[in-house]
Amino acid sequence: MKRKKLLHPEPLAEPRPCEAPGCVSDAAFRAPYSRDNMKDTRWFCLDHAREYNAAWDFFQGMSQREIEKYVKDDVTGHRPTWPFGLGTVGVAAMSELLGDQVRDSLGMYAAAKAKQRAPKPAVPPEQRKAFAKLNLTPGSTLQEIKQRYKELVKRYHPDMNGGDRGGEDQLKDVNEAYRTLVRAHSS
Ligand SMILES: [Zn+2]
To answer: What is the CATH number of domain 125-182?
Structure first.
């Protein structure tokens, strides 16, 4: 099936504002309102028309089920693979394009995205490494750190392995990582 052309640069009859929230640019491009409504148009500046278009193209040819799955997977954070340029307009546009059924998932997506953008307290690289060494995610509690440390000591300590010293290097790293994290917690 031949894809409809979505962007039409219009001769400026009268300037009108871009429909993207917060955008003050003049809209020179129109896009169809939704899949079910190709007659009515929305008006965007070039950047937002591109974004809207990217959202539209991206989901073109997917079934409703596939789209929902995609959105859900992304919300749970396993696959941060939204196409480039898919910002707030993209999400709003998809909501229009896809209809009510995925609107909730998209709302969740937007919320998750907003949360991602909120600045997190930075974990210094030294601590990040230490968490990784103990197979923990940054931000684990002191109790979790201690628990994991105990497990790893059991795994690597020669006394726990019939005198086998094969885990000594690992144990050294684990000890160091543990010290780093306890120090960070007590400061
Ligand atoms: Zn705009």
So the answer is: 1.10.287.110
